[in-house]
Write a structure and sequence with these properties.
5 strands, globular
Length: about 150
């Protein structure tokens, strides 16, 4: 289980705003401090502005996790993974999330707006409760990914 009091940062674009608001209203999990990084309304915004705010918070607090939401989750995933300390996973099921956490030490969950409420909550719970595997092969692979130089 994830240690208590882990900070969870959450951000979206305008297309993910409604889902972000639902997650905030649900409270997700009482063991996590949730920090909303915007936007503050469903008005059109540029998603890179909000994903950059989230990844910069994770740089300062690497033990924290993040959730990014946009129309499909693809743009957020592509943008977030440009930062070397981020391992963002675009997931469509709780099984995807479990593998992303256990095998890849994903620290950002990217979601699209078209997932059902029940599926999203299941995925978020798995994201927050699953630790990175202690198996050497997974640690070795994540270390290799982290060592790839930026072009």
């Amino acid at each position: 289980m994830t240690k208590t009091n882990t900070v969870l940062y959450i951000a979206s674009d305008h297309q993910g705003y409604a889902l972000k608001q639902k997650l905030l209203a649900w409270g997700i999990d009482e063991r996590h401090a949730i920090i909303d990084l915007g936007p503050d309304s469903p008005d059109a915004v540029d998603y890179p502005d909000f994903l950059q705010a989230l990844v910069m918070h994770l740089k300062q607090a690497p033990e924290s996790r993040g959730i990014l939401i946009c129309g499909t989750g693809i743009g957020m995933s592509i943008g977030a993974n440009r930062f070397p300390w981020i391992r963002a996973a675009l997931c469509r099921s709780a099984d995807d999330v479990q593998s992303a956490r256990e095998h890849n030490d994903a620290n950002v969950l990217c979601l699209g707006r078209d997932l059902s409420d029940d599926k999203v909550m299941s995925m978020v719970r798995v994201f927050l409760s699953t630790d990175f595997s202690v198996e050497e092969r997974h640690a070795r692979r994540v270390k290799k990914i982290s060592a790839v130089p930026a072009c």
